C-alpha cells in the first residue's frame, strides 16, 4: 500500500484549518503489461521436495483439472533450479505447466529444461504474468515474506485465476518430510492440509514450524490452529497402543478421533498417506473470520 495525502478544510478567513490526511491507495502497475509483483527468494530446493503436495494435488484436484480444456498450471517461485517444476509437469500429464520466477537469471537458466507447450518458463510474480491459470502451486515462497504480505499476495493471485481456478500455497521442510498448505479459490481460503512422513514423525505438533505463513505465527494459546495441534497430539498419544501395527494405523486413529470434533474434509484413503485436511473456517486466525491473513 502507498500513502497519499489530501488537503482537508477550506481556505480564507474563518475557515477551518487545512490538514493533511493520509489516504491508502494501491500501487499502480506499469502500463500495458503488469510488472512482476514480489521479491526474489533464496531459491533453495531439492529434488522430490514437493512430493507430498504434488500427490495431494494429483488425487484431489487432478480429476477436475483434466476435465478442463487445455488446463494451465503455474508453479510460482520454483527457485534456483526448475527441478520441482519439471516433476510437477510429469505428475500432471495432460496439462500445460508454466514455471514463473521473478529472478530473470533463474528464468534464463531454466530454458534448457523447457519442453513447449507442456513445460515452459517465464518471468513473473504474484500477478501471474498476465496468465489465467486453472491451478497455481506456490511452495516455500511466502514463508520468506512478512505475515502482513500474505493477504496481498493471495489477493493478487486470486484476481488472476481462471474461473473455477485453485491456488495451493504452503511450505515444507528441506527434504519434504513435513509439509502443510492452504487451498484457495477466488473467494478465499478453503482448507488447511497437514502432511507428514509418518515413519519420521515424532508427534503431530512437529508440523508447527512448517505451517503456512498465514498461520505459523498463530500457533499460540487462543488461536484455533494451536488448539488443533494440541488436540492432534493428545489423540496421537491416546493411539500409542496402535504403534505396534505401524505409524499409519496410529495416524488414522488420531484422525478418526479429531473428526468427532473438527470439520475434517478428507477420510481414511488420504489419512493413510499421512494427510489431514480441515476446513479453513476452523483454523482461521482470530480477527480474520474465514478470510485468512
Structure description:
- This protein is an alpha/beta fold and 293 residues long.
- The protein has a single domain (51-280), classed as 3-Layer(aba) Sandwich (Rossmann fold).
- It contains 9 helices and 10 strands.
- The protein has helices at 51-60, 62-66, 83-91, 104-110, 150-160, 213-216, 224-238, 247-258, 268-271, and strands at residues 2-8, 19-25, 72-76, 96-101, 119-123, 135-139, 166-172, 178-185, 188-196, 275-279.
- It has an 8-stranded mixed β-sheet with strand order 5-4-3-6-7-8-9-10, sandwiched between helices.
- Strand 6, helix 5 and strand 7 (166-172) form a beta-alpha-beta unit.
- The chain is globular and about 55 Å long.
Amino acid at each position: 500500500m502507498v500513502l497519499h495525502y489530501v488537503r482537508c478544510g477550506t481556505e480564507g478567513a474563518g475557515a477551518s484549518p487545512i490538514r493533511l490526511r493520509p489516504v491508502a491507495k494501491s500501487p499502480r502497475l506499469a502500463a500495458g503489461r503488469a510488472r512482476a509483483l514480489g521479491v526474489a527468494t533464496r531459491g533453495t530446493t531439492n529434488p522430490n521436495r514437493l512430493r507430498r503436495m504434488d500427490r495431494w494435488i494429483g488425487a484431489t484436484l487432478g480429476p477436475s483439472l483434466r476435465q478442463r480444456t487445455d488446463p494451465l498450471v503455474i508453479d510460482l517461485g520454483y527457485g534456483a533450479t526448475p527441478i520441482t517444476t519439471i516433476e510437477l509437469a510429469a505428475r500432471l500429464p495432460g496439462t500445460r505447466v508454466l514455471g514463473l520466477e521473478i529472478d530473470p537469471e533463474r528464468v534464463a537458466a531454466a530454458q534448457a529444461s523447457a519442453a513447449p507447450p507442456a513445460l515452459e518458463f517465464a518471468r513473473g510474480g504474484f500477478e501471474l504474468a498476465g496468465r489465467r491459470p486453472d491451478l497455481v502451486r506456490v511452495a516455500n515462497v511466502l514463508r520468506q515474506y512478512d505475515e502482513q504480505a500474505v493477504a496481498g499476495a493471495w489477493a493478487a493471485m486470486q484476481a488472476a485465476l481462471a474461473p473455477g481456478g485453485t491456488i495451493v500455497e504452503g511450505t515444507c521442510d528441506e527434504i519434504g518430510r513435513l509439509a502443510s498448505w492452504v487451498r484457495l479459490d477466488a473467494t478465499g481460503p478453503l482448507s488447511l492440509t497437514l502432511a507428514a512422513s509418518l515413519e519420521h514423525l515424532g508427534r503431530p505438533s512437529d508440523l508447527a514450524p512448517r505451517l503456512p505463513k498465514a498461520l505459523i505465527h498463530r500457533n499460540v494459546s487462543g488461536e484455533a490452529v494451536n488448539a488443533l495441534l494440541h488436540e492432534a497430539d493428545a489423540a496421537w498419544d491416546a493411539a500409542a497402543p496402535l504403534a505396534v501395527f505401524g505409524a499409519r494405523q496410529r495416524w488414522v486413529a488420531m484422525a478418526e478421533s479429531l473428526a468427532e470434533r473438527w470439520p475434517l474434509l478428507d477420510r481414511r484413503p488420504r489419512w493413510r498417506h499421512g494427510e489431514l485436511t480441515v476446513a479453513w473456517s476452523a483454523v482461521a486466525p482470530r480477527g480474520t473470520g474465514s478470510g485468512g491473513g
